[in-house]
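== Item description ==
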Amino acid sequence: MLKTNEDRLVKVSVLGEVSSPVMRYPYRISVKGEPMVLPGVGGIRYNVRVGDPAVGWMADHVEPGVSIKVSDVNANMALNILSCIGNEAIVVSGDAKGSKGVVIGKHGGIEHVIVDFTPDVLDKLVIGDKVLVKAYGVGLKILNLPEVRVMNIDPKLLKLMDLKIVEGFLEVPVTHLVPASIMGSGLGAVQTYSGDYDIQLFDEETVKKYHLEDLRLGDLVAIMNAEHTYGRIYRSGAVSIGVVVHTDCVMAGHGPGVTTIMTSGSGKIKPRIDPEANIAKLLNLRDDI
């Protein structure tokens, strides 16, 4: 059994606002040299939720559900670092006041926290509505396997993942293995307590070999030969686990984004393929998948 320090964690409120989509310029230039105009980050997505495909949309970096942030840089940093996947989120203003959702990811660069709400709540939300997150999980440790560093995950979700310690390794269910060689935007960041980094899907042979064409938003994936203890680096034998948090992209160096939830530079994580390893199913966020 896993032994954690959950009883020593602090639960604290952080506040975000439903953010507007932003566009600095209409065109995105694809890897094929095509100028494309597509929906991107921010706003309320009425028809893209966690559990849906991460690949194939007429979109670029689209975040499922609702994106939240605040204009104050320091407050937004706290929102992004302290919020953890699986945390409870509560709408505290507007017509949807009192409605509850769940944090499902974090997106770097734009510095958004991504929240899932049911469709009836999405219809009541407007840009600018305030969302309180009961942030819980920062500082979480697996005491009987310290070689595995945990981050960005609510202890409740950790318990739901069917984790097992087998011969000194943490066995983790994942939908896909991803080679570190195709990881792109976000590589080189000096910390992994916020943000994400992207799975490039432009090499057809690699996509086919690892079955990445059917990635879903919310999938748990294992990035092989990648360590995220103090940033994102290539390290032979290391393994990092993350959650797919946004859709694929047309621009070079980008693709479905992954927020890290655990890492082991010494390779003490052993992935186990499970097609059902998706946070929408683990957290019972939808009844149609």
User: Anything to note?
Assistant: The first strand starts at residue 12 and ends at 18. The mean pLDDT is 97.
